Amino acid sequence: MKAWRVRAHGEPGEVLRAEEKECPLPGPQQILVRVTAAPGNFPDAMLCRGEYQIKPPLPFTPGVELCGRVTAVGEGAGRFAVGDRVLGLAELPHGSFAEFALMSEHRAFPAPESLDDAESAALTLGYQTGWMGLHRRAGLRPGETLLVHAAAGGVGSAAVQLGKAAGATVVAVVGGAVKAETARWLGADVVVDRSTDDFVEAVKTVTNGRGADVIYDPVGGAAFTRSTKCIAFEGRIVIVGFAGGIIPSPRLNHALIKNYSILGLHWGLYHERDPAAVRKAHEELTVLADRGNVRPLISKRLGFSAVPEAITRIAAGATVGRVVFDSWEGAE
Question: SMART domains recorded for this chain (predicted)?
C-alpha cells in the first residue's frame, strides 16, 4: 500500500517520504480501515519533529485522525463490522496518511450520515477537544461570552461553532483579513483582527466592561497574558495548547484577585480515564451535525501527494479551517 513515512525526525517537508509498504494487520481490539479522508493537524508536524507527547518508533506514518471504511476486524473487536463507515483516531505508528490505517476500536466512532468523508474526518480532534473544553471543563452556559483565540484554525473554528450552538456570544480573535472573513462565516458575533485591533478592548466593549466568561486558548504566550486582562469575575480560561510556541507563566495572585480559573485540557486522556464521556461527546456532536449546528470548515481538499507541503503550511499557521487529504490521485 502507499504511505507517507518518517524515518528521521525533522521538518515535515524534509522528512516525509512516499513509500510502498505492507498493509498492517489488526491486532486484538483493533480494526483496519481503508482511509477515505485524513485531515492535516498541527500535531502531525510535531510528530515529524519528534516533539509530540506521543513518540512512535521510527519509521512511522503520521496522520492522527481519519474517516474510512472498515476492511478487517481484529480479535475481540465487536463494535464494528467490515464495511462500516467510521471516524476517529489512527493507531500510531500506522497513521492515516496511508491507504490503510489501524484504529483501536475504542477510538473509532460511527461517521454521521449528514457529513461527507472529509467533514467526518475533521469531526474528531477539533470538535471533541472543543466539546470537552467548553462543556466538561468550562461549563459554558447560554448567554455567556466566549472568547476564542486562533478562531479561524482547526481547533478554534470548532470552538466558535460549538460556542454558538451553546447559546454564547462569541468573540473570535484572528490574524489577518482572510481569517477574519472565515470567522464571520463560522458565525462569530464579534471578530477581532489582532494585527490591527486590541481584543482586550473589544471584549470590554462587548461586555460593558465585565469581561469574557470563558476564554478558549490554543495559542499560549502573549495571547494568554493579554487574556487575563479581559477575563470576567469567576471566568474560566481553558488552556488547549501552545501553538504560539511560548508556554506562559501565569500570575496566580492575579487569578486570586479576580476569582478566575485556569483550566487545563488534555483531551486525549479522556480516552483512557473516561471513555464514556468521549462517546457521549461524539453522540452530542453527531446530533449537532445532523441539525446543521456544526459543520467542519474544509478550506482545501487535496490529494495525498500534497501532504508534506500542506503540513508545513499548517505548522506555520498559514491555513484556515481544515485541510483534508482525500485522494491518492494527486493534489487538486
Answer: PKS_ER
Look at residue 278 and tell me if it is in a domain: no
The pLDDT assigned to 329 comes to 64
| Contact predicate 92/54, CB 8 Å | yes
**170 occurs within a structural domain:** yes
Q: 140 and 258 share a domain?
A: yes
Q: What is the 3-state secondary structure (H, E, C) of the chain?
A: CEEEEECCCCCHHHHEEEEECCCCCCCCCEEEEEEEEEECCHHHHHHHHCCCCCCCCCCEECCCEEEEEEEEECCCCCCCCCCCEEEEECECCECCCECEEEEEHHHEEECCCCCCHHHHHCCCHHHHHHHHHHHHHCCCCCCCEEEECCCCCHHHHHHHHHHHHCCCEEEEEECCHHHHHHHHHHCCCEEEECCCCCHHHHHHHHCCCCCEEEEEECCCHHHHHHHCCCEEEEEEEEECCCCCCCCCCCCHHHHHHHCCEEEECCHHHHHHHCHHHHHHHHHHHHHHHHHCCCCCCEEEEEEHHHHHHHHHHHHCCCCCCEEEEEECCCCC
Whether residue 262 sits in one domain with residue 224: yes
Assess whether pLDDT exceeds 60 at residue 332: no
In a domain, 290, yes or no: no
What is the rounded CA–CA span in Å between residue 171 and residue 151? Answer: 9
pLDDT digits (tens, 9 = 90+) for 59-79: 999 999 999 999 999 999 999
pLDDT tens per residue, range 110-164: 999 999 999 999 999 999 999 999 999 999 999 999 999 999 988 999 999 999 9
Number of domains in the chain: 2
What's the pLDDT score for residue 305? 94
Region of 245 on the Ramachandran plot (φ > 0 left; ψ -120 to 50 alpha; else beta): left
Quote the crossing angle between the two packed helices 42-49 and 307-315, to the nearest 10°: 100
If asked whether residues 136 and 260 sit together in one domain, one would say yes
